[in-house]
Specification:
Rossmann fold, binds magnesium ion, binds adenosine-5'-triphosphate, 2 domains, 8-stranded mixed β-sheet, 12 helices, globular, alpha/beta
Length: 331
């Protein structure tokens, strides 16, 4: 069942400060961070988002949480467009239904609060009765933290402990969706497995929907039902995890990611004289418009006769197999 439908979401950040403003064209004062994002999230699934650093993964989920405002687009949840909801509706409903595990847990906690107060605040926001300390103890022990942690403040926690407290806070109120931004980074392998097991249990027991961002492709492959690959603000591929494996038909960037993960060395295509032509084409398109974002790095283009299209036309995300979408002119 469809839980969220995200349509044509765009977001750009202003990058030029006042001293640069006079020297740059209006277009170059901004950086597009999300470009025409179209995505459906289904109830009870675990969706993994992978992609290079800076490709817009965090911005995407912050936008869905309404922590960052998009420039355009719609995101439907239970028939309503989240981007059109008032601040109050967002506070009262969306913040309870959606929970986020922040990439940087330092910024996620009020430094004046103890862990118990952090949990109480989350319960209050959700309108549920304050949980007993017993419940909290159980919750903490599921991530191998003792009862004494309830009385600690965030500056008294290590990075990994903060991350585990974030996970507890997110699952405490049993939301509909958890957006987990690199929930296992900085944790030892054993703890990573424990956190993943908690997610899998929550999904099984409460049909919870989880969106996980991670650079750990093996973990994403292990636990996710579908995988979404982002590159420079665009979704370049999305599909079942069985579609996204080496040897399968997939986007050149996805193949590169999988190859790096397996430590397989890239076999460069034979570079021929046509490259010179590509370079001259590239120069004409230095503003980055109307070309595939991956064109400069892609190997596939060398193998294609009509590859100048990569430098003159943005590839759209198209369905190559049921439920499997790729944005490449040649796949
Ligand atoms: N508030 C902001 N103002 C200006 N630019 C921003 C802002 N937040 C993010 N960006 C830029 O937007 C781009 C995408 O950032 P984002 O945090 O979404 O990347 P990411 O895919 O989560 O990367 P990582 O894997 O490193 O966490 C980056 O180039 C970043 O510098
Ligand atoms: Mg991020």
């Amino acid at each position: 069942m469809e839980l969220m439908n995200i349509i044509n979401v765009n977001k750009r950040y202003r990058i030029a400060n006042s001293s640069l403003k006079d020297y740059l064209t209006k277009e170059r004062q901004y950086k597009s961070v999300l470009k025409d994002i179209n995505l459906k999230i289904f109830k009870g699934e675990i969706l993994g988002i992978v992609g290079e650093s800076g490709s817009g993964k965090t911005t995407l989920i912050r936008t869905l949480m309404r922590l960052t405002e998009p420039d355009s687009g719609q995101a439907y949840f239970q028939g309503q467009d989240i981007f059109k909801m008032s601040k109050q509706v967002i506070r009262n409903t969306i913040r309870n239904q959606f929970r986020m595990i922040f990439q940087h847990p330092d910024a996620a906690f009020n430094p004046a609060f103890t862990v118990e107060q952090i949990f109480n605040q989350a319960s209050r926001q959700n309108g549920i009765l304050k949980k007993s300390a017993m419940n909290y103890e159980e919750l903490l022990s599921s991530v191998r933290l003792g009862y004494e942690f309830l009385h600690k403040r965030s500056h008294q926690l290590s990075g990994g402990e903060k991350r585990r407290v974030s996970v507890c806070r997110a699952i405490l109120t049993r939301p509909s969706v958890i957006f987990a931004d690199e929930p296992t980074s900085g944790l030892d392998l054993h703890l990573q497995h424990q956190i993943i097991d908690i997610f899998l249990r929550m999904k099984k027991d409460y049909n919870l929907t989880i969106v996980i961002i991670s650079h750990d492709i093996k973990m994403i492959e292990r636990i996710c039902d579908r995988i979404c690959v982002m590159y420079q603000g665009r979704i370049v591929e999305i599909g079942d995890k069985k579609h996204l494996a080496l040897g399968q038909r997939s986007h050149p960037y996805t193949r590169e990611l999988l190859r790096c993960d397996l430590g397989v060395r890239k076999v460069r295509a034979n570079i021929n004289s046509e490259i010179l032509n590509y370079n001259s084409l590239k120069d004409k398109n230095t503003n980055g418009h109307g070309k595939c974002d991956y064109a400069d790095l892609c190997d596939l283009k060398y193998l294609q006769k009509e590859s100048r299209r990569c430098f003159t036309c943005i590839p759209l995300l198209k369905e190559v197999k049921s439920g499997h979408h790729i944005s490449c002119h040649f796949i």
